[in-house]
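Supplementary Methods, section 5.1.

A reviewer requested that the exact input to the structure prediction be made available. We therefore reproduce it here, unchanged from the version used in the analyses.
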Amino acid sequence: MVSLGNFTNFSGGTLSSTRLTLFAGGPAATVQFNGADIVTLAGAGTGISLIGLNCHIIDEVGNDALRHLAVIGPSANLSVGFLDFVTGGDLTINGSVGLEDYGLNTSFTVTGSLTNFDPATKTLTGGSIGVHDDFSGTANVIFRFNGADIVNNASSLNLNTPTSKIVDQNGLDAFRNFAHNLAAGSVSFTDHNFSSAGAFTNDGTLSINGQGLPTVFAVNGPLTNFNSATKTLTGGVYRVFGSFSNMSATATLRFNGADIVHNAADLTLGGTGTIVDQASNNGLRNFVDNTKSGAFTLIGQSFTASTDFTNAGALFLSNTSQVFSVAGGHSYIQTGGDTTMGDSMMTAANVLIQGGIMHRGGTINGNVNVSRGTIAPTSGGGGGSVMLSGVGIIVVPGSYLIPGRIT
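The structure derived from this sequence is encoded token-by-token as follows.
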């Protein structure tokens, strides 16, 4: 046991500028200080981690210091692991709560109201809740609060196994009616499947990650960000990452009618990540236009456009194993924005730079015509050169910058 006596970082029910980490796999780990009755965790760097059943923070007569905990302030953190943590009443989370199982069942129960949740609009706001099973992958790790039925999300939520859950007091899945990830919302599912009850809207950040298991985020009604008439995806951030080493650990975003021709969203595909329609057709099979507001990133996978591909936004290719290509006889046309090669390869009959910048080192197979804009092989970090193979013609009607070399 560590006794802090009169602890100056604690005053008026508020603990600040302090991190207390207790780990007890066997004998008890205890911190004691006078008057310990923590109502609020406040400020950056303030956090409590209780890992194990025998972890205790107590006052001078042995009372639990967290018996009246009501507020986790911005930038403050509370983490628990292989224990059942229960609040004494209402709780406000403006900072973060993390559940780390360490291979054993773990739960966090709010006995009163989670004040971040509005039961009238069924909207969760503010703060961050992470429910993680990082060791066994089979332990039940559960965050529980009364009335949990999240239809609209404006907080940061992270679940990373099938047995990581957010539930109500009756054990019902809090995501059973999840329909709208608001602009301030961030949702990350790793090895954790989701299937919507109907339509879904993503205006925030949606991350789907398959690290050990196939992971599917399925929208059973329309994905309202997708205009089926214009075949345009808009709004929000989409991160779809399958494993880079385990080919069976795929990540899939599935929605009805997925056939993205025009991208006006922020879209990343990594590893075995895919977007598909209800019949499992590739949702990018006709993708040929990355608009001014669009960002398209490939990490560890290649892409082939069915015809000419136009980029007015941001295209990022991450490494040498990737090929971005267009169908034979067709062109890659950059009208604005930027193309970051990332030492990868681009194959097209013609690469037409009509605006913006193409930068970083890489290999271009095809004819290059620079009418406006910039080719800067070493711009934005990373050296190397752009190599023009095949016909290898470069036409430069205007001026451009080549800090590296073209051969």
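The radius of gyration is 26 Å. These observations are discussed further in the main text.
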